């Protein structure tokens, strides 16, 4: 039988089930087997690998994962897709579909229960665009026992993941991703390989989990709240953002200024000019003032 990810088979499946796309769930299905081959290749899958997929849709990517990986666990939020997936993926016995919003799922527990025999686990997904950032943040922050992620997203979001200081793409997402992973763009995907076609091109990103974070911080959650504060209003200076965003920041202005001097960071710089190393240094010096 033809791959699910061909325009003719996808249309046939959609017609058979009278499936209507929900834009609100970011439903853009891939219809190009070559793109799928490149995604699974980038993920470095073998039968010793388990794959976690988010949003299998009608199973386009799931099918390729099932062929190459030992086992696939896929989270799908849309109940209407369950009977379709049961049908389209019936030739593959190594796939488990979980009907759940991945943002509410206990992924660690699912790994323990479903993938206990696997030491090599990859997240591989064509992510729903409306929740790309929260999904990536959740999977990174939960410190899952995974080798990494190979994920497709809007190119514009992809550019933010590996952005460098001083660029308009650089922000708290870039810092979080670089803290936990080494991010690389695997390839760019034109909008023509989806049904329905999105408005913008996509990119496949490879996020390789670091064995330890890029910088050492005394308190991770304080570090991330500092980063968030520094980017709260991008046009404001660092000192203005910190005093307006940090708890009792206004009263602590003098102390914050002293600590910035100690960290050798000019208070009139903008948050977007600070490197992750500077954020780490500042976080470790400021933490005692806010704990
Ligand atoms: N993997 C398929 C493909 O490549 O053709 C479909 C990808 S489509 C971009 C995104 C999929 O994610 C849809 O099937 C959608 O229903 C599902 N989805 C959206 N939000 C979700 C969530 N919070 N949790 C799990 N699945 C979600």
From TrEMBL:
The top EC class, named as a word, is: transferase
Q: Which reaction does it catalyse?
A: adenosine(1518)/adenosine(1519) in 16S rRNA + 4 S-adenosyl-L-methionine = N(6)-dimethyladenosine(1518)/N(6)-dimethyladenosine(1519) in 16S rRNA + 4 S-adenosyl-L-homocysteine + 4 H(+)
Cellular localisation: Cytoplasm
Annotated Ribosomal RNA adenine methylase transferase N-terminal domain ranges read 35-211
Q: What does this protein do?
A: Specifically dimethylates two adjacent adenosines (A1518 and A1519) in the loop of a conserved hairpin near the 3'-end of 16S rRNA in the 30S particle. May play a critical role in biogenesis of 30S subunits.
Please give the family membership noted in the entry. Belongs to the class I-like SAM-binding methyltransferase superfamily. rRNA adenine N(6)-methyltransferase family. RsmA subfamily.
What's the name of the protein? Ribosomal RNA small subunit methyltransferase A
Q: Which organism is it from?
A: Bacillus smithii 7_3_47FAA
- Which gene is annotated as encoding this protein in its UniProt record? rsmA
């Amino acid at each position: 039988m033809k791959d699910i990810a061909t325009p003719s088979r996808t249309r046939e499946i959609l017609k058979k089930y009278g499936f209507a796309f929900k834009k609100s769930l970011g439903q853009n299905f891939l219809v190009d087997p070559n793109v799928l081959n490149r995604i699974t290749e980038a993920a470095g899958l073998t039968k010793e690998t388990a794959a976690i997929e988010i949003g299998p849709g009608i199973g386009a990517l799931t099918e390729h994962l099932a062929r190459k990986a030992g086992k696939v666990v896929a989270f799908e939020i849309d109940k209407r897709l369950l009977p379709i997936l049961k049908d389209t993926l019936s030739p593959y016995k190594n796939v488990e579909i979980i009907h759940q919003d991945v943002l509410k799922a206990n992924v660690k527990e699912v790994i323990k229960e479903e993938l206990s025999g696997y030491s090599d686990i990859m997240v591989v997904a064509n992510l729903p665009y409306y929740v790309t950032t929260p999904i990536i943040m959740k999977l990174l922050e939960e410190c899952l026992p995974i080798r990494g992620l190979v994920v497709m997203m809007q190119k514009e979001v992809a550019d933010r993941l590996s952005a460098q200081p001083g660029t308009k793409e650089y922000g708290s997402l870039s810092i979080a991703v670089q803290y936990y992973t080494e991010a690389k763009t695997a390839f760019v995907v034109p909008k023509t390989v989806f049904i329905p076609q999105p408005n913008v091109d996509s990119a496949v990103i490879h996020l390789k989990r670091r064995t330890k974070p890029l910088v050492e911080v005394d308190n991770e959650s304080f570090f991330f709240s500092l980063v968030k504060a520094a980017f709260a209003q991008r046009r404001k200076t660092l000192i203005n953002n910190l005093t307006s965003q940090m708890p009792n920041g206004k009263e602590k202005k003098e102390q914050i200024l002293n600590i910035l001097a100690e960290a050798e960071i000019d208070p009139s710089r903008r948050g977007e000019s600070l490197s992750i190393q500077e954020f780490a240094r500042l976080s470790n010096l400021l933490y005692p003032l806010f704990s």
